[in-house]
Specification:
Structural class: mainly alpha
Largest sheet: none
Radius of gyration: 19 Å
Helix content: 55-70%
Number of strands: 0
Length: 152
């Protein structure tokens, strides 16, 4: 599949093996995995970081195969879901960093374009999350209020 903002094709890379059930060597104790996910979220880990820690330290190659639910679903059931989805939050942080850079370096044309592309991605993702009702109906991305939005 082609890239979103470039006329290039993708690169080859490794792919996770197709599995229907968790491997027999993996940690599949459902209750302890859910407890660890909830504890790590309370410590402030993001859902992506939780998956990495479970994979590297606790031998859980896939939370979904071990528990039947994704990390986000486990957090939603326990009332720990964040108000802004993680991928949207990361894009907004990237846009804020680019804006800060551009206040100091006004002639940086490459990063001006990158800011436009990043904010376009943010707007598309907001449209998707509003349509799927993960964000409220009138939710808009405004660069002026983005920093306040992330501090919540």
């Amino acid at each position: 599949m082609a890239r979103m903002h470039a006329r290039r094709r993708g690169i080859s890379r490794s792919v996770r093996p197709y599995r229907i059930s968790a491997p027999e060597w993996s940690n599949t104790d459902k209750d302890t995995i859910i407890k660890q996910v909830v504890d790590m979220k309370k410590e402030g880990f993001s859902s992506a970081r939780i998956g990495l820690v479970l994979r590297d330290k606790f031998g859980v190659p896939s939370v979904k195969l071990a528990t039947g639910k994704r990390v986000d679903e486990i957090l939603r059931e326990n009332g720990l879901e964040s108000s802004i989805p993680e991928d949207l939050r990361n894009l907004i942080e990237k846009a804020l960093g680019l804006r800060k850079h551009l206040t100091e370096n006004k002639k940086d044309l490459h990063n001006k374009r990158q800011l436009n592309l990043t904010e376009a991605k943010v707007r598309r993702l907001v449209k998707y999350y509003v349509k799927s009702k993960r964000l409220p109906a009138g939710w808009l991305y405004k660069p002026e209020t983005a920093e306040i939005l992330l501090s919540r």
